[in-house]
Specification:
Serine Threonine Protein Phosphatase 5, Tetratricopeptide repeat; disordered C terminus; 501 residues; Rossmann fold; 12% strand; alpha/beta; 14 strands
Length: 501
């Protein structure tokens, strides 16, 4: 980056700018740039002068060039955002906000002004994201909660229906969606109550491809319908009973083997509905990372049923115990099959493992239970992902995973084993990197990534719904700041006004 900020043209331009003679200042700095086009500071100053002259579109071009020449300048980034906002280019401005936040530049005022532009442009999704972000930075802005409620009232209404398997994998999604949309959860008992809630909603989400999804799919279509299938449903009769022509989207969370099982039962499924895969995400804020040292405590974090294959784990543990009797195995979960429980407890005694295998039951506080563990193991014959494994990895435990169908699509091969001898090798290996196990989850299976994908789907449906309603005039919201130069603390002066939103 060549710079000659001491040139006479440049210095004269700065003097004129300080004197308020912006047009003359611009001419001198542009003359300097004609011979020194790589001078990032001068390019930035030219942009600032253009912005002062009300020529913000031209200023944007100068700031963009300045950022290319000097991409680590906080001043240039700030100026570019201001120019974007002055030209109502909120989308481009918002793309710089993560960088600004990392540099400590982002504030509530910038986010609020950006939200106002998005609202004026009819982009309800982005307007609400900016306001929620602003509240994170400055929670005391009570007026923003009222604005968010108004915007939510103009967005699609979303209903959630949970089958008998419950909302275990839905709770974080519900928290996220409630902040952005009007939400109701089905608590009725009859098909009529189910249908009434579907009619209330614009989007109905059926968690688990089970009985409720089957019933809903056979009713007259009154909304967009989403089914989320986890794993076991693909091996049951329900998918064959669903009227897929009434389902707008099927979300699967598992690997390709789950998908293959599903398609073997419903071969024309892809022609009848849209299919997407969105992996479950781990809420990293709920799982405390410990940069632990290698030890000899092994965790098995799941309820015990046949598919989890705990009998095979005992065979592996017997070999490890023979090599090094210091290792201990802890089961964190309850037995869900009496036959399996009798077998497992019998084998613990038969294999002389009573002093090294422990059954700790259901774990409400996973963090505390994992605090003194060093490895997390799975011997399942099938998993969609293995959330217990990912949660333990987020805490820093080393994963040792039986190579179930699709395991290689989810985990690195170095974490997998096929035979008991390989299980022992993985446990006894000197390789132990807690930070890398946590980062694996952050990069591949964070809740943030999952919610981003789900939000994208809702936003796409919202655009389709809005297009269908476009002929119906609707009063909408503009965010207007009554003080042109207000600070974040003065943002309470925002008022509502009709707009095209």
């Amino acid at each position: 980056m060549a710079m000659d900020t001491n040139s006479s043209y440049y210095q004269k331009g700065l003097e004129l700018a300080e004197a308020g003679r912006h047009q003359d200042a611009l001419a001198f700095i542009q003359e300097h740039l004609r011979t020194s086009p790589d001078d990032a500071q001068a390019m930035n100053d030219a942009g600032a002068i253009l912005h002062c002259l009300g020529r913000s579109s031209e200023a944007v071009n100068h700031f963009v060039k300045a950022r290319i020449l000097c991409n680590d300048s906080a001043e240039i980034t700030w100026n570019l955002v201001e120019a974007y906002l002055a030209t109502a280019r909120a989308e481009e401005a918002s793309q710089l906000f993560n960088e600004m936040e990392q540099r400590g530049l982002l504030n509530a005022d910038v986010l609020n002004r950006t939200a106002g532009i998005f609202a004026d442009q009819g982009n309800k999704a982005q307007a609400i994201e900016m306001l929620l972000w602003s509240l994170q930075i400055m929670p005391e802005q009570e007026v923003l909660n009222r604005m968010i409620d108004v915007i939510k009232g103009k967005r699609p209404k979303i209903a959630f229906f949970c089958g008998g398997d419950g909302p275990t994998f839905l709770n974080d999604i519900l928290d996220f969606v409630r902040n952005r949309f009007e939400v109701r959860i089905f608590e009725g008992k009859t098909e009529q109550e189910l249908y009434e809630l579907m009619k209330w909603s614009d989007i109905s989400w059926f968690e688990w491809c089970t009985n409720l999804a089957v019933i809903a799919s056979k009713m007259p279509k009154v909304c967009r319908n989403i089914i989320r299938l986890h794993r076991y449903e693909a091996y049951e009769p329900w998918p064959q009973q669903v009227d897929w022509t009434n389902i707008d989207m099927l979300i699967t969370v598992g690997n390709s083997f789950t998908r293959d099982a599903l398609l073997s039962r419903v071969p024309d499924l892809e022609a009848r509905t849209q299919m997407v895969t969105i992996p479950n995400g781990v809420n990293l804020e709920k799982f405390t990372f410990i940069n632990r040292r290698p030890g000899k405590n092994i965790a098995f974090l799941a309820n015990l049923r046949m598919v989890k294959n705990p009998g095979w784990l005992l065979q592996c543990m017997q070999k490890l115990h023979y090599i090094d009797p210091g290792y201990r195995l802890f089961f964190g979960g309850i037995f869900q099959d009496m036959v399996l429980e009798q077998y497992v407890r019998h084998m613990v005694q038969t294999l002389n493992l009573t002093d090294v295998v422990f059954f700790d039951g259901w774990q409400k506080d996973v963090n505390s239970w994992l605090a003194d563990k060093h490895y997390v193991v799975s011997t399942s014959i099938i998993e969609s992902q293995g959330m217990g494994l990912l949660e333990a990895m987020a805490c820093g435990l080393k994963p040792v995973i039986h190579n179930f169908p699709g395991a290689g699509q989810i985990f690195h091969s170095e974490f997998l084993f096929n035979i008991a001898e390989e299980f022992c090798t993985k446990i006894l290996s000197d390789s132990y990197e807690p930070q890398r196990y946590r980062k694996f989850v952050e990069d591949n299976y964070s809740l943030k990534n999952q919610l981003r994908s789900i939000n994208f789907i809702f936003n796409q449906f919202e655009m389709e719904i809005d297009l269908q309603r476009i002929t119906v005039p609707r009063p909408d919201l503009r965010l207007v700041n009554t003080e042109k130069n207000s600070s974040p603390a003065e943002f309470s002066n925002l008022v509502f006004e009709n707009s095209r939103l």
